Amino acid sequence: MMLAVSLGIAQLAGCNATEPQPRIEAQFSDWRFGQKPGRKIETEHYEIYTTLTDEVLLATFPELMERTFRYYQQQVPPKFQPEGRMPIYLFESLNEWAYFTQRFTGPRAPIFLQIRNGGYSERGVTVIQYVSHQTTFPLMAHEGLHQYLYHYVNPKVPAWLNEGLAVLCEGQRWTGAGLRSFDPAYNPSRQNVLAAAVLRNELLPLAELLETNAGRIVGETSRKVATYYAQVWALVRYLQEGDEGRYAPAYREMCAKLSEADFSTFALRNSNLTSGRVNAGEALFRKFITDDIETFEQGYRAFLRQGLLGQEPVSRANARKNGREM
To answer: What residues does 87 pair with on adjacent strands?
Structure first.
């Protein structure tokens, strides 16, 4: 049965919805996870399998994911059209999530079971443990971005851009009436982590960001993991808006070409590097953004200091000190 549902976050938040919300078509049916009764929710682009039973909460998911899907398209244009809907498994408990993960990921399960907050996307399938709407809704948007790239763009997008875009999608503005808008700059938890890393002088070098992937970082200390995700979020924001938009055209061109068939080979073939071991993440960056890693990193770190701590770029501060404005 197809139903038109509107976002139920107003009831979850204890507020009255006063603004009209767009309506999304969704079909609800019964589903079971072992002996646990659950629900299956079908929308235009998603199949959501869940052991959650709260009807108000269930009503939020169709609009959340379909509106998020439109946001993904704005960030990276789709190239392919998969035959079916994208699957999401959303579990009520950690035990359910872990049980599914062990069977779904097989020998690689120990890696996934280290994940904090119970969320990942693997082989185009998103698997989430529900914690709270404040935690889980941004997590669904994050993992959904990985899923979208896998199905609609390219499954081999290098981690720094893949993860940076995913964290970008966590920024959401909610009102009593529902999801108002996406705001990539609004991410207090990531911003706090980043500010602490700047103050402690623990920022990861740009070269490390470009070659690291989530599978490698997940086994590190929780502080380093958090710093990695915060930094790739800030890196993508810097590419989009930093230094008066200096890198924005190159960034847009890069995103438009992510659907190239053999992505790693494409990136390496078009890199300006002619010798030595080069990873696809660095090669992509050098091809589209800049070959001058050192100068870029100076601007990137100045962007962080100015945005997080209110510090002026060194060149401008020096100019004022000398009695002139640049």
So the answer is: 47
Contacts of 57 (CB under 8 A, 6+ apart): 8, 12, 133
Task: Kindly provide the residue ranges of all beta strands, DSSP E only, lying in the chain, ordered along the sequence.
Answer: 2-5, 24-33, 36-42, 46-50, 86-91, 119-122, 125-129, 172-175, 178-182
Chain centroid offset of residue 296 CA: 23
**Cβ proximity of 17 and 178 under 8 Å:** yes
Among candidates 227, 222, 240, 169, which has minimal Cα distance to 201?
227
Q: Please state, in angstroms and rounded to a whole number, the distance separating the CA atoms of residues 246 and 240.
A: 9
| Termini Cα distance of the chain | 64
Query: Rounded distance, CA 264 to CA 266, Å?
Result: 5
Helix (H, G, I), strand (E, B) or coil at 297: helix
The DSSP annotation for 238-288 comes to HHHHHHHHTTHHHHHHHHHTTT-SSHHHHHHHTSS--SS---HHHHHHHHH
Per-residue pLDDT at 105 exceeds 60: yes
For residue range 173-232, what is the model confidence (pLDDT) as tens digits? 887 767 788 999 899 999 999 999 999 999 999 999 998 876 677 667 888 889 999 999
Q: Are 281 and 289 in contact (CB under 8 A)?
A: no
Name the strand (E) or helix (H) holding 306. Answer: helix 293-309
Q: Which residue has the tokens 């992510």?
A: 258
As a whole number of angstroms, the distance between CA 276 and CA 132 comes to 47
Counting beta carbons within 10 angstroms of the beta carbon of residue 138, is it exposed (0 to 12), middle (13 to 18) or buried (19 or more)?
buried
pTM recorded for the entire structure: 0.85
Q: What is the topology classification, in CATH, of domain 2-169?
A: Glutaredoxin (3.40.30)
Core vs surface per residue 283-293: b (16+ CB within 10 A) or e? bbbbbbbbeeb
Quote the CA–CA distance of 200 and 193 in Å, as a whole number. 11
227-284 tens-digit pLDDT: 999 999 999 999 999 989 999 999 999 999 888 756 667 666 655 554 455 688 888 8
Domain ranges for the chain, please list them. Answer: 2-169, 188-321
